[in-house]
Amino acid sequence: MFSKFLSVTSSLLLLVFLIGVSGCGNEPPQIESKITKALKKFDTEEQNTAHKAEMRKYHMDHLKHKRDLTMYGGIRTAEDSLKGCIDCHVPVPKGDKVVRHTDPEHFCKTCHAYASVEIDCFQCHADHPDKPESATANNALMDENLGIVADDSTRKTSTEVTGQ
Amino acid sequence: MSDRNHMHQNVDQNRGDDGNINAYRRQFMASVVGISGVATVATIAPGIILQQAQAKPADEMVTNKVRWGLLIDTSRLTDGGDACVEACKKEHGWGNEKLSNKEQDAQWIRKVKVTEKMTGHVTSLPVMCQHCDTAPCVDVCPTGASMKRADGIVLVNKHICIGCRYCMMACPYKARSFVHETLTDQRPYSPRGRGVVESCNMCVHRVDAGKKPACVEAAPEAILFGDLNDKESDISKALKEFGGTQIRADLGLNTGVRYRGI
Amino acid sequence: MNKRITFSEAGGGLGFITLLMVTGGMIALGFLSFLYMEHSGHHVTGMNNQIVWGLPHVFAIFMIVAASGAANIGSVGTVFGKKIYQPLGRLSVIIAIALLIGGLLVLVLDLGHADRLIVAMTHFNPKSIFTWNIALYSGFLGIMFFYLWTMMDRSKLAKSLYKPAGYIAFLWRIILTMGTGSIFGFLVSRQYYDAAIMAPLFITLSYVLGTAIYTLVLMAAYKWTGRELGDKVLNRLRYTLAIFIAAVLFFELARHLTNLYATEHHGIESYILLDGGIYTFLFWGGQIFLGSLVPMFLVWCKKLKDNRLALGVAAALAILGGVSFIYNVLIGGQSYPLVLFPNAVVESSFFDGITNSYFPSLPEMLLGIGGVGVTLLLIVIGVKVLRLLPDSLADKVTDPHHK
To answer: Of A105, B65, C208, C214, whose CB count within 10 A is highest?
Structure first.
């Protein structure tokens, strides 16, 4: 009876191992070409490379850290803000053309579909910038207020604003 | 044109806007103060108003030095609060659920008509989260998702809300709603979604940017927004002079939303 | 423990397979309705923003409360040293564990975000009664397994720990049921809940439900396995049941009288007692008449002594009464409008001042039935693989003084 237990367990382990190995042989995908391009550009190529390297590996840490800062501390700098990501990486809706997180061309989806990682950010968060017509005057104003800070110039601009 | 140049342009533009806001605020506050009958309008120097309008720097944590509150004068609400409700819907994007029935629809703020039984006197007032000091919803929440910020704003941290609805059971004001269906096209500043509880958050994103809640802007002649801890703020002065009623004051929750004329 | 008593596994054969299939089917239905609710959102349920807790919570609270009561049978043997109860201990612990797991599953699967269960395990608000209950329920399961081990293991160590385990289990149980009752007791905003008497009321109710369920399971198990079950054991359970029903009635009387004294609560009392429609019917018809008076009559009527059918019916009716009570407190309490402004008529688009109605939907019902299925399946498997049931509970075995 014990040997039966052993044989079942070992064959299960073998199966899991084989499944794992089968995933390893594949070529790294040409994901670069599939990822939707951002709307804004960095000044220099170095900034761009650094941003990509950092965000590809740690975007979730940035987002989660910022998430708690915003929730509990009311810190709303554009740095690491999910809204900031969306504003730059997802196109503004034009007419009926709205890119949603369920669409394959959505920036987040391009990678997450490949990595098979399901995210639930967009159950609550807007997955695209506000439609121009639905943005009220107030919101548009605020978009500009916060939209000015998109990268490491954050601190500088925000102090400029508050210092006045 | 490089991005950075573009940004600086924005900054300049922003300064211009800020100036406009201040001008608008000055005018707006003066009207509120004037109407709400603080006899000493002259003492409300521009300096005080500017101080009040100053935003918290975006990268600074909120503190308990401030406690935000509202004072709603029902006698000045010409529409009983309809404009507030509309402004809130527009700001936060609720009120257009497709699959939920009426009982399941979310309502962050509602107009309540109160008819006193003996006298027949009718009052209408907007009711939303009362931002209690000792909030029952915060006490009962198992995960701490229902929370009170240091500055007194009560809101739901939807990231850790598990959707148990205990806070809805605990709230004496029925201020909270549970989202019964999948939502799309949320407002970027007001995330809301299926399976979590939501409520008025005193437009926390606007407050953090130094602005007033949407309902306050919709009824500037009737609602005062300000710092209850600051004895010099208009809301504190008005409360000191005229008082303000809490709904269900018997529960001792020390609400941040006060009413006049009920 | 009584030396003459031997325990053995029970079941097997066609009856066992049938039970597996029936309970498995219940679980499958429950699971499907969970997937349906999780996929669509709660708009497919009868619950809404006015009645926020519905039928799943009735099921869950019923089973969690009953779990504590089922373990009481074991406690009476261990803590109060009643010899006749000691052979019943093992089954009582398994029923308690099964009920708790079934109830918790229903509760958890009804969450708006059941997928975030890990959040509930990692983020705690120490002031929340729910948080206490998470700790109390997990602790209960651990203690129950430990208690079962001290009952079943023949080692000296286990035997020496039997009494302490019994005491810990007893105390833990009382705190657990108080915790469950307090979920309601501390809700200041709701007219019908705000009463500390909810905690002792729930404890007493748990004894009724636990004893009733235990009696039914025991009778079924002994009948289906063809083992002998004497009247001595059943009579003990019979009178335990009736006494606890009387105790619940006493607490209910106290609760309603307190409410009737305070003007503030006249509205809700007249609603529940007089003109609440289904809730008034559930109170008088379900809880008081069918759930309390009839079972007490069935137990104490001299002519029905030793009548097993009467006992079975009494236990089933006591369960019905318990469900009526929980439904009434939970749904009825919510359907009564919150009082924002006393002495005024209140109207709004959000159903202020209106008595809310609730119609449970099929998925909710099936989810609850799935939880019951889990409980039954666990009991069936437990009885099959563990030595829980004494070979015989005939009078000459259970009673040392029997001739």
So the answer is: C208
